[in-house]
Design the sequence.
């Protein structure tokens, strides 16, 4: 080759100086241009300028999406101590990506071109860019590293987030009209999804989680590939509004075969659960084209340009990610059964604890103690004396008690444990497994030391020391009983005096006095017993009530309150989960 002349050098410098005068790109892109008046590609002109020369407005989420993200953040915070990190990993990733994407440009839309080897995705990438940027050919895999192409300035931070180095960043070759149509588009050519190199597939899958939208490129031979549908399309069915499905290489199909393949592709997508954007309904756009001949490229460019102009892909992608993360969390938050602890269950638990501490027996003992005290106070002296002698002279039978104190304590402990298990099962019924486990653990922790605490309360709330209180009629009854006794004694002494001749004979009066005392004393005692039934019953019921309230208070503080706190936390996370599952969101 000859040495270029001074005039040739001058002509080649003119476009370069013209580009510099038009303003430097601030995103460090490697530009590919062609010489004016020719269709061939010129050698790459590298221009790396420092970023930050142009301020770009960050992405702004509208109210509903912000509310859903806040609810998800609150949901994750409330659940960290109840759910393992793997369960919350996807939700945390979505929150992190939403926060990171919000700080970046809201005027750009990152669209990835994904597909299997041989589908022609790199060829489509070049066709949209208007210049051969991504390598194409028969060698597989062709795309070993992702390549980014931006149609406007200010996308440097977005491409940095994707991890694409500056040497793999390009600018398209387009007319001013074409550039205006796709202004704000950042197109990324991903490595092959079925690449034999594992790192290529991993890199493609990583970028699929970061881009705003995806163009899935399929060909007539692999459009029904099970790996593509089961591993990629079906899991991303909820992202239909940010998806394009392109049937490439239709030039290879004769006659109406292209329409038949396209219809079959739509059928497969429908089976995958992907909504199709037909009849002005939201969903994935399905197109047929040939990147080789250019057939359908104009339609794709038009649809893509309208999609980018709306500036809503980033928010719709975040919303779809949020929906997917929330759907994965449904088993640990949602339940169709009514949950909680009813008042009946609470009352039954308190009743079981009261039975365990012997509240009923304590009340009966208090009632008997009151009656015994009434009998002592209002009974005849002779009967009390007889009972005292009988108690003193009665010999033990030698029979052992049926149950020892240790056996009674063991039985009471078993009753308490059974009561705790029952209320824990009732409270956890219908809850998702992690929250049911948390409720049972709270009940178990509260039951530790509960039998001992109930024993202490039983001792404090049992019968008060000393004799039971006396009603106001007891003194009168005691006086009447004393009078009956005195009448008996007077009648008896009178009769003895007559017998020994000290007093004048008159049997009627002393006998009548003695009979009055003998009959009147038991009659007074019987009347006092009837009158004592009501007060004794009330006294026993009061003792039972005190013990039941003490047992219920102890059980509430140690078991029911911790269980209620877990149920309240679950209700809070359910409310937050309902907010996360609310209406969709978009860019403000």
Sequence:
């Amino acid at each position: 080759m000859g040495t270029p002349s001074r005039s040739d050098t001058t002509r080649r410098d003119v476009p370069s100086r013209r580009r510099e005068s038009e303003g430097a790109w601030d995103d460090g892109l490697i530009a590919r241009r062609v010489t004016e008046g020719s269709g061939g590609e010129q050698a790459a002109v590298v221009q790396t300028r420092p970023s930050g020369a142009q301020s770009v407005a960050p992405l702004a989420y509208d109210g509903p999406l912000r509310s859903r993200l806040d609810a998800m953040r609150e949901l994750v915070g409330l659940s960290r101590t109840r759910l393992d990190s793997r369960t919350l990993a996807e939700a945390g990733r979505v929150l992190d990506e939403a926060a990171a994407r919000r700080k970046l440009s809201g005027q750009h839309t990152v669209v990835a071109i994904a597909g299997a080897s041989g589908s022609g995705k790199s060829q489509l990438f070049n066709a949209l860019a208007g210049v051969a940027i991504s390598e194409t050919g028969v060698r597989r895999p062709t795309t070993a590293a992702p390549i980014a192409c931006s149609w406007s300035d200010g996308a440097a931070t977005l491409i940095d987030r994707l991890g694409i180095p500056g040497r793999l960043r390009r600018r398209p070759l387009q007319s001013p009209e074409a550039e205006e149509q796709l202004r704000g588009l950042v197109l990324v050519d991903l490595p092959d999804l079925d690449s034999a190199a594992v790192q290529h597939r991993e890199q493609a899958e990583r970028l699929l989680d970061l881009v705003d939208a995806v163009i899935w490129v399929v060909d007539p031979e692999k459009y029904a590939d099970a790996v593509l549908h089961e591993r990629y399309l079906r899991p991303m069915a909820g992202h239909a509004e940010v998806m394009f499905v392109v049937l490439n290489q239709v030039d290879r199909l004769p006659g109406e075969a292209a329409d038949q393949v396209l219809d079959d592709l739509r059928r497969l997508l429908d089976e995958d659960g992907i909504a199709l954007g037909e009849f002005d309904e939201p969903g994935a756009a399905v197109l047929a084209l040939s990147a080789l001949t250019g057939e359908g490229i104009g339609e794709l460019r038009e649809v893509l340009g309208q999609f980018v102009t709306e500036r809503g892909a980033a928010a719709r992608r975040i919303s779809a990610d949020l929906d997917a993360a929330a759907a994965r969390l449904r088993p640990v938050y949602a339940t169709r059964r009514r949950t909680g602890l009813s008042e009946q269950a609470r009352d039954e638990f308190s009743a079981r604890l009261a039975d365990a501490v012997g509240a009923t027996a304590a009340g009966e003992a208090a009632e008997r103690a009151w009656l015994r005290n009434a009998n002592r106070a209002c009974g005849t002296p002779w009967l009390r004396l007889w009972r005292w002698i009988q108690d003193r002279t009665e010999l033990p039978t030698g029979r052992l008690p049926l149950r020892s104190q240790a056996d009674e304590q063991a039985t009471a402990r078993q009753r308490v444990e059974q009561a705790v298990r029952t209320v824990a099962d009732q409270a956890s019924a219908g809850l998702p497994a992690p929250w049911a486990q948390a409720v049972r653990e709270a009940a178990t922790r509260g039951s530790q030391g509960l039998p001992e605490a109930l024993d202490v309360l039983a001792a404090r709330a049992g019968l008060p020391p000393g004799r039971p209180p006396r009603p106001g009629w007891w003194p009168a009854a005691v006086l009447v009983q004393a009078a009956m006794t005195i009448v008996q004694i007077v009648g008896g002494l009178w009769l003895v005096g007559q017998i020994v001749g000290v007093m004048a004979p008159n049997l009627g009066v002393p006998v009548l006095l003695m009979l009055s005392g003998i009959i009147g004393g038991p009659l007074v005692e019987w009347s006092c017993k009837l009158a004592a039934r009501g007060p004794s019953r009330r006294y026993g019921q009061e003792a039972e009530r005190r013990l039941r309230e003490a047992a219920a208070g102890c059980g509430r503080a140690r078991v029911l309150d911790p269980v209620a706190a877990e149920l309240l936390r679950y209700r809070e996370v359910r409310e937050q989960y309902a907010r996360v599952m609310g209406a969709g969101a978009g860019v403000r």
In short: Confidence is low (pLDDT under 50) at residues 1-53, 397-404, 583-588.
